[in-house]
Design a protein that fits this description.
alpha+beta; single chain; Cytidine Deaminase, domain 2; globular
């Protein structure tokens, strides 16, 4: 049996050009439709200097409680689209929005690398279909 993983570019057209991400609430409205109860996935949201969404794509998919991605993969996307700012978001199919140790370590590593590259890592959101947790608001970035 052969399995195929497909990455898809998600809709950003429904957000008018004057719509800017100013809070995690607005971002959650933008991503909650992409929740999967079956597997973890990470969404990369690229923003311009005024925090307008210019890119939204699922860049990694995993199992029910794990997923693997590296900062290099994230930065490759960001450099290709020319984003100035970015946010990552990933779902927890378990329904628990508390970040794991791995989530925190990865977030801090990504933040340090973004600073070196001159990119603004604005937030890491962990979400379910009903709620979210902003690592920035939680003081973890």
């Amino acid at each position: 049996m052969e399995y195929k993983i497909e990455y898809k570019t998600l809709k950003i057209a429904e957000y008018a050009p004057e719509t800017f991400i100013k809070s995690p609430d607005l971002l959650f409205d933008c991503i909650k439709e992409d929740f999967s109860p079956l597997q973890e996935s990470m969404i990369l949201i690229g923003l311009n200097v005024k925090n307008r969404i210019v890119y939204k794509k699922i860049i990694a998919m995993g199992g029910t409680n794990t997923m693997t991605i590296t900062p290099k993969e994230i930065f490759t996307h960001l450099l290709l689209i020319g984003a100035s700012n970015f946010i990552i978001a990933h779902n927890h199919p378990s329904g628990d929005i508390i970040p794991s140790k791995e989530d925190i370590v990865f977030t801090r590593k990504l933040h340090k690398a973004a600073e070196i590259m001159g990119l603004n890592f604005l937030d890491h959101i962990i979400y379910t279909d009903k709620e979210y947790n902003s690592l920035k608001q939680g003081g973890l970035i």
